[in-house]
Amino acid sequence: MASQPIISVSGLRAIVGDSLTQELIEQYIAAYALQLEQRSPVGPVLLSRDGRESGEMICQWVANTLMKYGRDILYANILATPTVGVEILEHQAAGAVQVTASHNPPQYNGLKLYGADGRIINAVQGAQLLEDYQLKRSPKPKTTLGSHSILANTNQRHLEKLLALVDVESIQNEQFKVLLDCNHGAGSKLAIPLLEALGCQITVLGAEPNGQFAHPAEPTAENLESVGKQVVTHQCDLGFCQDPDADRLALIDAEGQYVGEEYTVALCVQQLLAEEPGDVVINCATSRMAYDLAAAAGTRCLESAVGEANVVDLMLSSGATFGGEGNGGPIDPRVGLIRDSFVGMVRILALLTREQRSLKELAAEIPTYAIHKTKISLEGTDAEGVFSDLIEKFPEAEADHTDGLKLRWPNGDWLLVRASNTEPIIRAIAETRTLQDSQELCEKALGR
Q1: Is there a smaller number of Cβ atoms within 10 Å at the N or the C end of the chain?
Q2: CB atoms within 10 A of CB 258
């Protein structure tokens, strides 16, 4: 029996040769073509992929569908997800399709869709596209097919924007020894020339973007244990670890210890606010470290609902100078409105250079919190009932309904409970001063 594709307002993921079929891709892209016709009636569409073996075939399906509806295709081949956003603006494209399943296992592939503004489509646009897909809506095919051309030098503009963020010469003088783990994803295409331009001595793991992951794709502590050992073996100052489409960055210190993804955004905030104070946006599932850093700099930290598009929406409406998500995804509007692992690299190297301390030392100076995550089945109950029970159970906590239910205590502890968009479950995330307290808070909340 075929598995079910995961289709939501944020994109599509499915197992190749099982639930990911040519018919699925064509129907989904037809709905996207309809949205493009309504929002951006003229202009080419940029098409790219991460390194997964199935990507080239899926790109062909996408291209043929969009060309049928009269769209010219600018094919960039293998490209990091944040670079796609930069290239949309560079070529004045109507939008883009990135063929990627991000951190999902190798048997998966999927689609991320962009607008003419160079960002992933927002929740409203995603909901409309999902409805159009479900109702099998599409534009009328055109009598003249769109064209297909290949882009060259697709990383140059992104590289220039990244280098403009920092004092390149001062970083070059440090001659950092960096272990770069691209895990055979799209990240090597830009990460290698970027780190070389910053004068780093690089040891690269998984440079070839062929999708043959050397370890599970999500950059978690468990999955990066072997990478940490390589950081020590090669006597590197730190390790940069990307997910397959390079919008997330995890950190490893010189002792091979996993610093994690939550610290990526926090360290970027620390580097930036000392030089350019301004408001910061995180999502409501991200560590409160950013709150502490913003408060120390005399600025605000604002919270959005979970999801990259929601963070960007609040950044734009509030005029924030930086944003990000706790999964290692910094968002810097000076470069683009997409999570960007390369932004993390340049800003963290700039911070190390300015402070003249190690990654381990800098991370230790940020107030430490512990996050615990768990989930329960929704069978036999409903999310709103769970939320009501929690408000009654914890009357001393402030309730926030930005995304599900977030309870905040006066001491800074918090608990977020959300219904999954793709499964009949409720997810809970708690952050306190200790892992034991976070675990106990989740157990109290969902021990039903």
Answers
A1: N
A2: 21
Same domain, yes or no: 193 and 321: yes
447 confidence band (pLDDT: 50, 70, 90): confident
Q: Show Cβ contacts of residue 301 under 8 Å, excluding neighbours closer than 6 positions.
A: 279, 280, 281, 282, 290, 291, 293, 294, 295
* pLDDT per residue as tens digits for the range 224-250: 999 999 999 999 999 999 999 999 999
Mean pLDDT (the chain, rounded): 95
**Structural domain that includes position 389:** 370-446
353 contacts 289 by C-beta, under 8 angstroms: no
Residues 86/220/19/17 CA torsion (nearest 10 deg): 90
